[in-house]
Amino acid sequence: MGPYDAREEIRPIAILRGLEPTGEIRESDMNLVERSTPKGPNAYDVVVIGAGFSGLNALHVLRERFKVRVFEAGDGVGGTWYWNRYPGARCDVESLDYCYTFSRELYRDWDWSERYATQPEIERYANWVADRLDLRRDIQFSTRVMSAVFDEDANLWTVTTDRGDVVTARWVIAATGCLSAPNKPPFKGIDSFKGEIYQTSLWPKEPIDFRGKRVAVIGTGSSGIQAIPQIAEQALHLTVFQRTANYSIPARQGLPSPEYVATRKDEDHFNDWRARAVVAPQGLPTEPMALKDLPPEEAQSELERRWALGGLSEILSPFYLVGSSHEENKIHADFIRSKIRETVKDPKTAELLCPDDHPYTAKRPCVDTGYFETFNRANVSLVSVRNNPVAEVTPDSLRLQNGEEFKIDVLVMATGFDAMTGALTRMDIRGRNGVSLKDAWSHGPRTYLGLQTAGFPNFFIFVGPGSPSVLSNMILGMEYHAQYINDCLRYLCERGIETIEASPEAQDAWAAHMEECAGATIYNDTASWWRGANVEGKPQGFMVYLGGWPLYTQKCAESAAKGYAGFILDGQRVAAEPVA
Ligand code: NA7
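Above: inputs. Below: predicted complex with NA7.
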C-alpha cells in the first residue's frame, strides 16, 4: 500500500461527459474565496454536518480549495455505519459495489472479506479512508450541530453546536444521512419499562448478552430481519412483533473469489464498471428481462436460478418492469411467497410472514441470512400487530390492544427511521426571514434537484430528498454530489458570486417532475418510509427521485452547463429555464 496520491482521483462520470460548467480554476480564484470569507479561528468557508460517507467525501473534495470544518455527533467516522451496530448489521449492497470509487487506489487497496460486509468491517473501512486521506484533523467529534442560521446582511451562516461552538460559514452542507434520525414510536408506558431497551440504530458498543432472557423485537424491516436470526441464537425466547410482512431474499453470503476481486480491481474493468454503474447503480447491468413474456416454466426456472445466487442485484437488476408493471411484479411476489411457505414449517406462521398488502419492492426489499428459517426454532414466535397494535409497555411486558400480554426482559426496537428528512428537521435551520426548514417542509420536503431548498441560500444537501438517494447506489450518489457541489462553489468563486439558492419556480417544477416520475411506478400507493408513511403525523409524498440515475445526472449537468439554471445567484434568477 503506497501513500495516497490525489492525482489518481477520478471525476464522476456525468462530469466526464464534457458538461463541466467551468474551465480550470485560476490562481486568482482563491483570492475571491479568501476575500469573501471572514478571518478568525471560528470562521470557515464550509461547514459540513456529519462525518459519514457523505461528509468524509465532501471534506476530502472541498478541502483542497476551501477551509472546511466537519461536526460529527458520534465519536468516530462512519455515520449510519457508526450508529447501526446491532447484531447482524450488514450492508445489503455487495461490498465491491459499496465503497468509494473516486480513487482507484482506495478501491484497489482495501480488501473486503465477504460478499456483503458487516457493520464492523464497513466502520473499519470508513476509519481506514479517514486515516488514509488524513481527514480527522478537520473533524470535530462528539459534537452535534444544534442550529444553523443565515444572516442575510453578511450572507453567512452561523452554526452552533451542543458543545458551545459558534462558528460562521459561507456554505453549509448537510451530510446528515437518510437513515440517521431514529423512529421511536411513542408507546404508552415505555419509560416505565424496567428491563433492557435497545434501538437498533443506537446500539451500544458493548455486546449485549441475550442468554436466558425473554426478548421482544418490534419491527421487521431490514434491521429487524438482520438482527432477529442472531438474537434468536442466544435468547431464551424471542417474540417478533410484526406489523407488515416483508419480502426478503437470501444473501448467500460468502467470500468473493480471488478471480472476481482481481477482475473488479483491474484498471480497465474498474473504469468500465464505473461508467456503466451510472446507468445501473444497483449492480452490474445485465440483459433486461421481463418474466411475464416468458413461458411460466421458464420464468420459474429463471427465478430459481437467481434465488440460488441470492442478493438484490441478482433478483432485481435484470427485471426492469418489477417497479412499473403489476403483472410482472406479481410473478416475483408469488415466487417469494412460495419460498417462504417452503421454508417455514408451521403453515400459520408461514402465512403471517407472506407479504400480502404491497407489491414486491414497493417497500424496501430486504436481504437476509436465515431469516425465515429462524421461525422454525422452538424458541421463536411471531405475533402480528397489524390489526392488534402494541397498546402499552408495562414495567415487565408488552400489552397489545386486545389485552394480550407478553412478559419480557429485553425490548428491541427495530422501528426504523424518520427517514430522509428527520436529521434535517430535527436541527434548527433557519434561512431567509428566519424561516425554519421544519416549517418550510411542513407539507413535505421540497428541493430543486435534491440539492437545495428555496429560501436557504448556500445550504446544500447530500443525497437527500429530491435526489435518487436511497434508490440508487448511495456511494456513487455521494461522490456525484461532492464533485457537483465542489464545481458549483468553484463557479461561484470565479465570478465573485456570494449566494446560490434554488428558485421557488424551479423547486415547483422539480416537485411536478418528481410526481410524474413516481406516478409511472407502482411505488406511490404503498405506505413506505420513502413516502414518510412510517412516522405518525409525517407529511406523505414520495421523497426519492424516481426518474433514475442517468436522467438525474443529466438534469444536474444541464443546469450547471446553463450557468446553474433554476438557481438564484446573488438575488438574480439565472436566465435559462429551470431544468425539470
Ligand atoms: P424500516 O424498514 O422502516 O422497518 C421498521 C419496522 O418497524 C417495520 O417493520 C415497521 O412496520 C415497524 N414499525 C414501525 N413502527 C411500528 C409500530 N409503532 N408498531 C409496530 N411496528 C412498527 O427500518 P429498518 O431500520 O429496518 O430499515 C431501514 C433501511 O435500512 C432499510 O429500508 C434499508 O434501506 C436499510 P411497517 O412496515 O411500517 O408497518
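The first strand starts at residue 43 and ends at 49.
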